[in-house]
Amino acid sequence: MPLIFLLADLKVDCGRDSVTLRWRVAQSQIDTSLLRLGGCYPSSISAGEAMFQVELSDCNFRRLVTGDTLMYMNELTYMSGPKAQLKSFSHLVVCAYERPADWAPRIFDPVFHTYGQGDLVFHMELMKDDFSGPHLSSEYPLGSFIHISAAVEQMFHQPLLLLLEECVATTTPELQSEGLVHPIITNKGCLVASKTSNSKFEPRQKASEIRLSLQAFKFTVGKEVYIHCNLLAWDPSGLDTSKKACHYVKGHGWVLLDDPYHSTLCGCCDSSCESRKTSGIASEKHGITQNAVLIGPLVVIDKSLA
Fold first, then answer.
1. Please, what is the average pLDDT of the chain?
2. Buried b (16+ CB within 10 A) or exposed e, 168-191
């Protein structure tokens, strides 16, 4: 383990249903935004310090019961480049509690079979710049950002990771083969719009939600546009080339949102990411897909034409 990590200040405060973790190191040039707690990004960062304030039901915490002890385990990881001062590391984080007398595990099917659409409820909407609430206008100046949030209510499922498989913009509420189509996300989770603009996936706040900042594009300017997406709720441990969220970072190439250290999963984004095709609402061993989620209409305006 690198000496620089041994000198770091790591403090973990285990609450009843949540955990607060602070990681601080004297070297202020360390990029604390590269720290992850399971599948979660830091809640706040500053020079040499990162803070996580998360629920035990998020971030892919693993639960283990041994005798009278109930434990929640996760890993704090740091993923750096080959020439970085602080090398990549992983550190076990554990919160241990006395097992409640009436505690029992949640009832769920261990192979993730789903029992109808009612078990999972998908949502998608246009958001304000800070994602604090719904966007109040349908107009977006050309070059500004269209902020999109997608989420899934999981009810009785073991925590699932929400992904966007495909997204396109069209001029109609229904997908039509003869209509105009602008690709946004293709190839099973590749944000192709990020190769030609500043579009990107935003850091996750929770596994059941995914956020997208899409730079308003020059597609039928001044006319109504609808965005159609396929959403996928999936086992967080089952990511592969067909189950992923990748965006293009200029100077670095394709980057995996949930684990940049394994961005090789995005290597197929410039070719073809193979996957078994599904239609409608399709149940699989590790998750479920909800096709044809629609948001809009929205209008992209070019102020230079005014």
1. 78
2. bbbbeeeeeeeeebbebbbbbbbb
